[in-house]
């Protein structure tokens, strides 16, 4: 397993099919409705079609496309491709009722399909993570009469701004060394309880931990968003664990803090990846220029707004082959 595949498998472990790159339920519902409507429009008049859900994640796009196809009595052959095996397992489970579904583990930058293999090529907040070359080459697999539609992260848009806010909070947690200090304080407290550690050592660990907790807590209290809520909850859980340590097995308590550290690191990495993958106007225009060189029809990009936010939430990039 490559390092990149391991990274994305770690992200998708334990995640269900409800969300792909977005956490707010109302935004997820809005995106699902978009794909149901868009897929329905592109499937209209087709008896059968072949769909590639590229960098599919949990298969949200494929699922809404399958629902649109069923409503129009269109036979839809679906291929879900993602670099993460865990994502593909979630996608296959969510699409268990669809007619024909294949899942393929692979890199969106090295598609294992012949030119013209698909009538529809869709992606939601996925293919841009594989880089501009992957985006640029995607229309190669589009068949005559086929249509491509990608929703991609919009740099400086609404989702990007929220991700940046959340990332600042998790960066503060990492910089403060909060969880390492919590583990140190826990160990010092257990040792002091057993009479094998000094009160001076316990006091020093307590001072260091409280400074880190105050730093992270102050930023969280002055921020909004999911990260701030999660950090405040984490601080409360850590305080309770250390205060009531006698009620917990020492190894279990250690393990819980270490698991929290891994979880926080994974969330932080995800936010870093998301903000790095977001596309600016120049990058979008460069990709569309390559598409036009490949002989596909490319309209101007659209900026999709989500929810009540007036800022764009995503780029909508489309192409068709006549």
Automatic annotation (TrEMBL):
Q: Name one GO biological process term.
A: methylation
Q: What GO annotations for molecular function exist for this entry? A: methyltransferase activity
Methyltransferase domain location is: 52-146
- Tell me which domain of life the UniProt entry assigns to the organism this sequence originates from: Bacteria
Matches recorded under Pfam families: Methyltransf_25
InterPro entries with a match to the protein in the record: Methyltransf_25 (IPR041698), SAM-dependent_MTases_sf (IPR029063)
In terms of SUPFAM superfamilies, this protein maps to: S-adenosyl-L-methionine-dependent methyltransferases
Keyword Methyltransferase assigned: yes
Enzyme nomenclature, EC number: 2.1.1.-
> What are the entry keywords?
Methyltransferase, Transferase
Quote the protein name from its UniProt record. Class I SAM-dependent methyltransferase
Q: What is the lineage of its organism?
A: Bacteria, Pseudomonadati, Pseudomonadota, Alphaproteobacteria, Maricaulales
